[in-house]
Amino acid sequence: MKKKHPRIAISALIVGTLLLFTFGEKLSASKGLIRPDVPISKNIDNVPHLVPHDYMIHETRWLIQALEKAHFNKISVLDVNASEFLLNYLRNLDRQKLFFTVEEIDSYLARYTPTLSTYLSQGNLYPAFEIYSEYLSKALPRLKNVSEIIDQEIDLEKDQYYRSDRQDANWSETTEELDAIWENIITHEFIFELLSSDDLNASEEYNQNTILEKTESAKESIKRKYDRWIKNITDYESTDVQELYLSTLTQMFDPHTTFMNIKEKEKFDQSMHNEFVGIGAVLTDEDGYCTIKELLPGGPAEASRQLEPEDIILKVAQGENEFVDVVNMKLSKIVELIKGPKDTLVRLEIKPIKDQANIKKVRITREKIKLTANLASADIHKITRNEKGRKLGVIKLPSFYGSSGDGPKATDDVEELIRKLENDSVEGLILDLRRNGGGYLSEAVNLAGLFISRGPVVQVKSTDGKIRKKFDFNPKLCWDKPLIILTSRYSASASEIVAGALKNLNRAIIVGDSATHGKGTVQSLLQMNLPFPHSHPSGKKSAAKITIQKYYLPSGESTQIKGVISDISMPSVNELLPIGESDLDCALPWDKIASVNFNRPTGEFYINMSTINELKAKSMSRQKSNDEFKYLTDNIDIFKMRNNQKLVSLNLQQRHLEKLKDQNVSRELEIKFNSLSHLVTPRKSVFLDIVDVQNLKSQAIRGESKYENPEFEKPEDLDIRLHETLRILSDWLDLLDNKMVSQHTIKN
Questions:
Q1: Domain range spanning residue 350?
Q2: What is the pLDDT of residues 192-213, one digit of tens each?
Q3: pTM of the model
Q4: Residue 492 forms part of a structural domain
Q5: CA gap 578, 174 in Å, rounded
Q6: Are residues 682 and 594 in the same domain?
Q7: What is the CA radius of gyration of the chain?
Q8: SS3 353
Q9: Do 589 and 734 share a structural domain?
Q10: Which residues make Cβ contacts (< 8 Å) with residue 726, sequence separation at least 6?
Q11: Strand 483-487 relative to strand 647-651: parallel, antiparallel, unpaired?
Q12: Which residues, in sequence order, are CB contacts of 371 under 8 Å at separation 6+?
């Protein structure tokens, strides 16, 4: 099953009448709802039995009609593969295949598949709640039995291996097979806890007696973990079952279409406020693991330089208190643990996506996160080559933000930064979109227009099949010199529109990962509008985010799945991570429509293919020989090796040796990276203090003083891909200089 990751959407509008569906009188058992002969499971160990509320019938019917009328694909719920839908729901409940057997899975499919479409059309959530009740009946005894097993003597000298990630494993054939899996799970977790102490990292000598001194604390830690797991699943409410079931359904249409129950809708509304207190990270639940999907620019998480998107949060601690295991904990509860008062400490235990063999602890001080602080910024780099110095500008744009009033707009801020850079005699420009996940479509169109006098930027195809072409008609041309757009697999949506359009129009060279994210769809948030008798007693409303449009470049090619292909690519571990649109289940396909016939005005800056080929050849030559690219290649090879290790040893001594080996590999890689520091000395590439656009717009006292009296300083860290992009831009300027000299010589 493909891995889920961030939903990145661009704001769009949809006709309001789609929200107004009419329902008949209140449905009940006497009004024709299917009630199978199979009785709903009874209470389990006094756990409250969950049942759907009456208003959920109408929410479900509303959602079905909204999907069928508004979704881009215009498909009926009858076209949804009922067996696959039920399998996905069962996978979402039992992600690691730890509770159900093949026989039980087959029985659910046989029981519910034939009439599933009728259930859905009637708004009947009976299958969701019945399966959840049976899931509890399987899961609770297993989880409660852990305390008994862990108190027994555990064999730590097994010559066996265990598959720690069972998402892609098959369901077990028998209960006895599940028993053996659970025995291995507990052995694996016991060894993990024994080896998790920091003081074990310093010595390479294996001393079993020293390690076993942690036996009691390790067992207590495991018991607490499973007690929390039990609490998490027994704390489930009816709305949680509804949300899980209906979101499973919506993602059969496409991965970005989701259902939001009332609680989730309230969280979404809160996230739209300008500021909140936290660490500045967007979190999501991926197969029971709290995963970082995005780091908000300027937030404490990003400032720590210790976290990356796709890192997994295993434990959370308030201040110096004990860590709390958050695996399989509801995301809302994890968020509550991480949030807290301003200027207080939160500690995270992280499983890094790029070094999964080594767990690390991160200390972060909570701050007030201003979402509007996610603004453009600029720096100047000086490249010294053959005793000739060049000033090159870099503009970092974290998102395509906008405002209907006097608030900040990405286009205005980038335009002002370009003006400042030009005043400082910058010769070439890099637009860094590596972490830009999208934003307002209007800002994408306007920002692309800063680099062309006029021309097509994007085509938008709607649910009704109509295609609208969006042009830049503003004749203002803010930058008519060499432009490179630096991208990655994290560059999505509006980023891909700008990069793709300027590539189509031969205006910019695209550098970075081999391709961008590949999200070429638009979602609209539809708030449920039910007649009063059928609405929630509180008056609050649930909602659905539905894919309603697709983007296409001026060439007619979709950015969906394929993204924007780089002209010059660099090796990147991102290529191995499941972070692209193509890694998602049920993603809409790539396709193509007619191109826009348009020729750019003569006299504007224009890139020809021979220039790109020459710059690419120079970069490829460096990538084959330079030390920093040898480091990148080693990093990728190590990641591949670790990623391919699906099995873990159940032998304590073997695990200890493997851990030390992994730590030594990571340490050697870090030493190799630190040895590259000579590349950022003032004679190679130097860095001017960041100029924040907020300062520029409010008289820019600090920013202007830096520009008036620039003091170049050594960067704190080496950014290998930016460093090479600066070299490519320098090569480009050298080519243009040589061309000018050649033309001057011919004229003379």
A1: 280-365
A2: 988 876 555 545 566 777 777 8
A3: 0.79
A4: yes
A5: 32
A6: yes
A7: 28
A8: coil
A9: yes
A10: 381, 383, 392, 394, 430, 685
A11: unpaired
A12: 273, 274, 275, 296
